[in-house]
Structure formats: structure tokens, C-alpha cells
Amino acid sequence: MPPSHHSPSEPSAAGQFIVRSCRVLRLLTAARSGSAAVEFAMCGMALIGFIMIIFNAGMLGFQLGALAHAVQMTGRWATVKATASYANSGSKITEPCLGSVVTTFNSFADPPLSALAQPGSSSTISGTTTTGNLTLTASWSGSAASAPGVYLTLTGTYNWQPLGFAAFGSGFPLKITTAATVMGSSLSGVSVNPSCS
To answer: Cβ–Cβ contacts within 10 Å for residue 56, how many?
Structure first.
């Protein structure tokens, strides 16, 4: 048998093929660059969905809080103004006009809610005004010199549309109502001025 040209540390041709095959297999099994894309494809939509839900829950809370604050503060402002008119005159309550109520509501609600447009008539006391997704209804009720007196019922409605979920159509109506009484309006000798201020 002729002497081998290979040293004892070098593998034969068959051995070299096996070593190369093992290296290629080792590289193929260690390659994970495509697995991250596959894993993200499986889990990414759920992750993005959860992030959108968390974002929308935050926006819902923020806009609902803004609506509640604007309705409560506007109701308080309107009844304090009516109470001040009674205190100044001594016998007559002058309710604020709907235009003044809308202006005050806008100062508390905008931003994050869109501003309401002014009502068509500036001399109305009660009524509804709507702009886009936002509606405000003011209604003065009750009678002077009888319990509970003259009071304002103020209702703000906002159709909240979640971002990224167009399937919900017109959105979800958020509705906040508050009632506030004009102080002193149930006392005897009190009357309500037919015009507003």
C-alpha cells in the first residue's frame, strides 16, 4: 500500500466531507434570523392590539373626565351667576343666556373636546347646541318661591370614537348630567326675570 500523503491529523476526503457537512448543519441550526420575524408575526398583532387598547382606554378616561369637569363647572358658574343676579336685585333671578353657557362650557372643555358653536339665538335660556361629536343641553326648571326652587339641568354628550377601531361606527356616547339650584330661589317673594343676561 502506498504511503498516505495525509498527516495523521488531517481527515481523509470522506472525513472532510463529514466535517464540512457538520459545520453547515451547525450553521443552519444556529441561524435564527428568520425566527424573530416569524415570532413577531405570530405575537405582534396581539401586542399592537393591546397597546391600542391601553391608549384608547387612556383617551376615554381623559375625554370623559374633561366632559364631566366642563359640565359640572359650567352648571356651577350658571347658577352662581343667577344667584348673584338675585342677590343684586333682591327679588328677581336672571338666568344666563344659552350663548353664555356655551362660551363657559367651551372654556372648560376645549381642549381636549372640540369647541361648541354658539346657538342661533342669543336670547334663549334653555336649549341644545351641537357641534360634531359634542352636544350640550341646558334646561332651567322649577319655580321661584317653591322647593326646590329654580335649578339648571345641564347635560353634555360626546360620541367617543376609539382610534384604530373604525368598526365601531359612530362611537360610544358618553353622557354627563348635573343639576344645580339657584341659592335663595325657594324663598318667598322671588321671581324669575323672563329675559336672560
So the answer is: 16
